[in-house]
Design goal:
CATH class of the largest domain: Alpha Beta
Helix content: 55-70%
Number of strands: 8
CATH topology of the largest domain: Rossmann fold
Strand content: 5-15%
Oligomer: single chain
Mean pLDDT: 77
Shape: elongated
Structural class: alpha/beta
Strand order of the largest sheet: 2-3-1-4-5-6
Order of helices and strands: HHHHEHEEHEHEHEEEHHHHHHH
Number of helices: 15
C-alpha cells in the first residue's frame, strides 16, 4: 500500500526526538536540517494529497513553505511573547538596537505579528517576532495569533514585569505544550534594588520549574527609567535633569546569540518537524474524512439502485443474484476511493466472505428475504408493492452492511485484523441502527415505486 507507506514514512521523519520545554537538544544541525527539509519538500509535493484537501489547508501548507525557506536560509525565529504592556515590543527594539517594533502607551499596540532580524546575529539568522499581548480586552483573535506565531517559532522569550499572574502562568504552560524551548525575561528590573531583584528571580525560577531552565530566567530593562542628575553651576546653583539610560539587555542578547550560534539550525529543524508532523496527521485525517464522505454517498447510491432493482424484479429469488452483482460493483468502486483497487474477481470474493458472515449472524433476516422474494411473484395489488418494498428494504440494508464491512477491510489495508472477518462484520452490524435504515429504505423505495406506477 504505497500511499499509506508514504504517510508512515512521513510521520517517522516528522517525529525527531523532541526537546522538553526546559532543555535544548544536542545539535546535529546538518543531518537534522537536510533530513527535515527533504521531508517538507516531500509533503509539499506529495501527489497523494487531493487538491480539495490542499485547498482547504492552504494556510498550513504556506507555513510549511515558510519553514522550508527558514531552514534553507539558516534562520532561527524567536517569538517575544507575554502580557499586554509588559514591554514586549520595547524589549525587541532594545535587543535589535533600533525602533523596529511599534511601542505605544495604549494597551494592545501590537495587533499583528511583526518580525525583524537581529543585526548582530546576521550570520546566525536570528529573527525576532513581536506578538500581540495575551490579555488584550476583546482580543481573542489576537491571542490566538500570538499562540500560532509561538507554535511556528523555534524559541520563545516570555516577558513579564513582576511576579507571574495566573493568566501568565497558564500561558506559559500552554506554550510548553508546543515543545518550544523558552526563556523568561523579567523586564523593568531596574525598578528593584539588587536584593529585591535577586529574590524575585529566585521566586520566578521556582514557579516555572520544569518549564524554563533556571539559567534562562533573566533580568532585563528594555527602557530603564531616566536617571535624575544634579548639576551645580558656577554660582553653586543646583540643576536637576533626567538622563536617559541605555537598555539593560546584554545578558538576554548574549544568551540568544549563543543559542543561535550553537543550536539554531537544530532547533529550527526539530520545530519544523514537530509542526509538519501535526500537519501530516491533519492531512491524513482530512483525506480519511473526504474518503468516508465520498464512500457514504457511493454506498447510498448502490443501496437505492439495489433496493429498487430487487423490488421491481418479478422473478422470485432471481433478484438476489442480480443484487450480488451490484454489491461486487460497489466494492470495486470503494476500493478505488481508498486507493486499493480490487479486480472484479477479488471484489466478488470479498462480497462472498462478507455475505457468509452476515448469513451466519442474521439467518432470520435472510430467511425473510427469501420468503418475501417468493411471495412477490404470487401477490397482487397493493400487497405486491408492500412486499416488494419490504424485500427492497432488506436488499438496501444488506448493501449498507456489505459496503461498511468492505470499507473497514480497505481502511485496514485489505485486512480483517487479528480477530478476523467474523468479528469485523459483527462489529459493523452492531454499530448500525437496523430499524432506522429499514424504515428509510422502505419509504424511499415506496416513493420510487409509486412514482413509477403513476
Amino acid at each position: 500500500m504505497e500511499r499509506d507507506a508514504l504517510w508512515r514514512r512521513l510521520r517517522g521523519w516528522f517525529r525527531p526526538a523532541a526537546p522538553t520545554p526546559a532543555e535544548v537538544p544536542t545539535p546535529r544541525a546538518g543531518d537534522a536540517s537536510s533530513r527535515v527539509a527533504e521531508s517538507l519538500r516531500g509533503l509539499l509535493d506529495d501527489p497523494a494529497v487531493p487538491a480539495s484537501v490542499r485547498s482547504e489547508m492552504a494556510a498550513d501548507f504556506a507555513r510549511i513553505e515558510a519553514m522550508l525557506a527558514r531552514l534553507e536560509n539558516g534562520e532561527l525565529h524567536v517569538a517575544v511573547f507575554g502580557r499586554v504592556s509588559a514591554g514586549k515590543s520595547a524589549l525587541g527594539n532594545a535587543l535589535l538596537g533600533r525602533e523596529a517594533f511599534t511601542v505605544g502607551v495604549l494597551h494592545g499596540t501590537t495587533v499583528e505579528a511583526e518580525q525583524a532580524t537581529l543585526d548582530e546575529a546576521a550570520n546566525d539568522g536570528l529573527v525576532l517576532i513581536d506578538t500581540p499581548g495575551i490579555n488584550e480586552l476583546d482580543g481573542e483573535a489576537r491571542e490566538k495569533l500570538a499562540f500560532d506565531v509561538a507554535e511556528i517559532s523555534d524559541l520563545v522569550v516570555f516577558v513579564c514585569d513582576g511576579d507571574l499572574t495566573r493568566e501568565e502562568l497558564d500561558a506559559l504552560r500552554t506554550l510548553a505544550q508546543t515543545q518550544r524551548p523558552m526563556l523568561l525575561a523579567l523586564n523593568k528590573a531596574d525598578r528593584y534594588h539588587d536584593d529585591e531583584r535577586e529574590s524575585l528571580l529566585d521566586h520566578l525560577r521556582e514557579r516555572v520549574a520544569g518549564l524554563v531552565q533556571p539559567h534562562d530566567v533573566i533580568a532585563v530593562a528594555a527602557r530603564p527609567a531616566p536617571q535624575r542628575v544634579v548639576q551645580v553651576d558656577a554660582r553653586q546653583r543646583e540643576h536637576i535633569h533626567e538622563q536617559a539610560l541605555p537598555p539593560q539587555v546584554a545578558s538576554l542578547r548574549e544568551r540568544l546569540l549563543a543559542i543561535a550560534a550553537r543550536e539554531g539550525k537544530t532547533l529550527s529543524a526539530v520545530n519544523a518537524g514537530l509542526y509538519a508532523g501535526r500537519l501530516t496527521d491533519q492531512v491524513s485525517a482530512r483525506i480519511a474524512e473526504t474518503r468516508r464522505t465520498v464512500a457514504a454517498k457511493l454506498i447510498r447510491q448502490y443501496c437505492l439502485a439495489k433496493g429498487v432493482a430487487v423490488a421491481l424484479n418479478p422473478i422470485p429469488v432471481a433478484d438476489l443474484l442480480a443484487a450480488a452483482g451490484l454489491d461486487a460493483a460497489m466494492v470495486v468502486q470503494l476500493s478505488r476511493i481508498y486507493g486499493l483497487p480490487l479486480t472484479r474477481a477479488e471484489s466478488g470474493r470479498l462480497v462472498a466472505t462478507i455475505s457468509a458472515q452476515l448469513a451466519a449472524l442474521m439467518a432470520a433476516i435472510w430467511g425473510m428475504h427469501l420468503v418475501a422474494s417468493a411471495l412477490k411473484g404470487v401477490s397482487a395489488g397493493l400487497s405486491v408493492v408492500a412486499t416488494a418494498a419490504a424485500q427492497g428494504a432488506l436488499g438496501w440494508y444488506a448493501t449498507v452492511l456489505i459496503g461498511r464491512a468492505a470499507e473497514r477491510y480497505l481502511i485496514a489495508g485489505k485486512s480483517w485484523g487479528e480477530q478476523g472477518a467474523k468479528r469485523a462484520v459483527a462489529d459493523v452490524v452492531a454499530s448500525l441502527d437496523r430499524d432506522s435504515i429499514l424504515r428509510e429504505a422502505r419509504e424511499e423505495i415506496l416513493k420510487r415505486l409509486k412514482a413509477r406506477s403513476a
